[in-house]
Write a structure and sequence with these properties.
Order of helices and strands: HHHHHHEEHHHEHHE
Structural class: mainly alpha
Number of helices: 11
Number of strands: 4
Radius of gyration: 25 Å
Largest sheet: 2 strands, antiparallel
Distance between the termini: 51 Å
């Protein structure tokens, strides 16, 4: 916490001095010293919840035979789904556009941070994405689990979690640290939709299983929540002014909400019909598993972005100076009390 956001050890508020801020009491309606702690606890819980969900996804999709067979069926289903095959055949130029768009997104993040002179927040955004990528690489190499088998029967290395999905969603959420608060919902919403599209495309091409993309989204959520918790611990967060629903906020959050609800609902309904048993795979199962995986991966990515926007809905991460800051020494009372003075 910042010095002006921390009560004294005895619990009693200290006297007013230069540098104190009344933002918390004037805008948030709460006493100074509680806002940063609340945000730190909130983001810490979000980080722990994301780690728990990531562990459950790893245990269910990698360590169990049913999860591995579902992943193999989802990869094989792209070959039997006519809609996916037609889309990939009609758009061959998309093969290299994902890498180009990732590079452009990182350049956009750097450009916004430099133009707004938010160098520390830009370094935190890039460092958070790099940490998520490093964690994904460590999980791919050293996490215990059997080797996966491709559709042609050849063993391939594990892509759990997906590095491109980590980079895309990490870049989209990194914009949250450098853009103004009033544009946060629109910019992060559009970036999250782009990240979801890249994850769906990687599943459609067979480069990654749906579980790889789901795990990447949860990993980014955990690392990003830890980064914001660190900001709150250092007192770098402050309440944002309350604003009503604007058009740009609706344009950023409504598509994410529809995609999250629709994707998770459709994936959950299809999941019961496509979980393979121990026998041979039915003819329709790979196609159903592929569509189920696409829906779950898209719904998870949208839900993660929507959860981050909801957790930081009234939290301003902009390091600019807060209003209501006292920049001069507090003058003494011009009419001090005189104990010996009596009014007759």
């Amino acid at each position: 916490m910042a010095p002006f956001d921390r009560p004294r050890a005895g619990g009693s508020p200290r006297s007013i001095a230069a540098g104190d801020t009344w933002w918390y009491a004037a805008v948030a309606g709460e006493a100074a010293g509680s806002f940063s702690a609340r945000i730190r606890i909130r983001m810490r819980r979000a980080c722990l919840a994301a780690i728990l969900l990531l562990t459950l996804a790893y245990a269910g999709l990698v360590l169990t035979a049913t999860g591995r067979r579902w992943g193999n069926a989802a990869v094989a289903g792209r070959l039997t789904d006519p809609a996916v095959a037609r889309f990939l055949r009609e758009h061959p130029s998309l093969q290299g556009s994902g890498t180009v768009s990732l590079a452009l997104a990182v350049l956009l993040l750097v450009a916004v941070g430099v133009l707004r002179k938010r160098y520390r927040h830009l370094a935190l955004a890039l460092g958070t994405t790099a940490a998520a990528l490093a964690a994904a690489e460590l999980l791919q190499r050293y996490a215990p689990g059997p080797r996966f088998v491709a559709a042609n029967g050849v063993a391939v290395e594990s892509g759990f979690p997906s590095s491109p999905a980590v980079l895309s969603l990490g870049t989209a959420l990194g914009l949250l640290l450098v853009v103004p608060h009033r544009l946060r919902a629109l910019v992060v919403g559009l970036g999250a939709l782009w990240a979801v599209a890249l994850g769906a495309y990687s599943v459609a091409t067979g480069h990654h299983r749906p579980g790889d993309v789901i795990a990447a989204d949860l990993l980014v959520l955990a690392v990003f929540a830890a980064a914001v918790s660190l900001l709150a611990r250092k007192g770098k967060v402050r309440p944002a002014p309350r604003r009503g629903l604007s058009l740009q906020r609706l344009l950023g959050t409504v598509p994410l909400a529809l995609l999250a609800i629709g994707g998770l609902a459709a994936g959950g309904l299809l999941l019961g019909d496509c979980l393979p048993g121990t026998g041979p795979l039915p003819a329709e199962l790979p196609r159903i598993a592929h569509r189920c995986g696409q829906a779950l991966a898209a719904g998870t990515g949208a839900a993660v972005a929507l959860a981050v926007l909801g957790l930081l809905r009234r939290v301003d991460l902009d390091p600019g100076s807060a209003p209501y800051r006292i920049s001069h020494p507090v003058p003494e009372d011009p009419f001090p009390e005189e104990p010996d003075h009596e009014i007759s």
